[in-house]
Amino acid sequence: MKEYAFNMHKLPVGVLGASGYAGQELCALADRHPHFELVFAAAHSRAGESLRLPGREIVMVSADSVALGDASVIFSALPHGASASWVIKAQQSGAKVVDLSADLRPGQPEVAIPDLDAPYGLPELNRDAIRTAQVVANPGCYPTATLLGLLPLVTRELLLPGAPVVVDAASGVTGAGNAPRPDLLFGEVTEDFRAYGVGNSHRHLYEMRATLDACGADLDLLFTPHLLPVARGILATITVTLREPLTDPLALFRTHYAVEPFVEIANAPPRLREVQHRNVARIFVTPIAHARRPMLQIFVAIDNLVKGAAGQAIQNANLLCDFDETAGLPL
Ligand SMILES: NC(=O)c1ccc[n+]([C@@H]2O[C@H](COP(=O)([O-])OP(=O)(O)OC[C@H]3O[C@@H](n4cnc5c(N)ncnc54)[C@H](OP(=O)(O)O)[C@@H]3O)[C@@H](O)[C@H]2O)c1
Is residue 9 in a domain? Predict the structure, then answer.
């Protein structure tokens, strides 16, 4: 594929769910990708409307009218529940598929496509499996932030077994998609701040638990999301208890992510404006003072639409196609 793209043509790609927030971001990234050519952008109720991309305008088509076989890679940015059936059709057309919905992610209460082996598309954890897959389950936005914050500790078995891991995370309103909802009106959201999915009930817990379980973690994950009155960005604050004190946790995180192009270890708690419109996770970690046990606080900031959705999907597509993993992605 690398040769094909470099020497002959760009690789044709299509986006399902192009009118949504994640789909629009995907179309923009795919359209200026050095090795991809956007051959269709399909919408549902908004088929026929135009979509403004940097430098040009395209018309979104109905998914039913699309020849899926025209694309070598298909991104499904459809709501969970609606996505799986399109993933099957896209796969049957011969395309490689990146599914941004929760349908194929690990730990879901219902298996959407039995017998499909779709690796969880967190490249910092699963890069080798992604390279050889036909279908990849792109992670959720909160799980991307949470897991990247925990992996350096979990994979080294540094957490106190059985101790709770507390994740307080806040997301901008694009995390909820762009279908109209009264509770997401400007007047309801602006100058306010509230928790939702309380009582450890958010659906992202499934994939986080399943991934941490697969890494051998023995912990209670306590996750509380909040709605932040900004358009985009997630900040997760994670509190953990260690088996033993760590002399330099920041150095450990720097070592763990030394070769990762999309993880930055910061010297201070990250800010949303440092990650917006970028395909990066920016992380800071510090010991917690005045606690009876050795504890750490980890802060992770991402752009929910880029590293938390469309950017990570392009990163996965680059791996599927054997391109440079950073191709077409905003660092
Ligand atoms: N937003 C984020 O930060 C984020 C992050 C990570 C993952 N995701 C995942 O990415 C997917 C898209 O999220 P989003 O935020 O972009 O949602 P969204 O803004 O609500 O967009 C949903 C898209 O799906 C289409 N659609 C809606 N119902 C459909 C149906 N029954 N059949 C076919 N198409 C349908 C919509 O088309 P019309 O508008 O034309 O009707 C639209 O293009 C979701 O699975 C979400 O969980 C989102």
Answer: yes
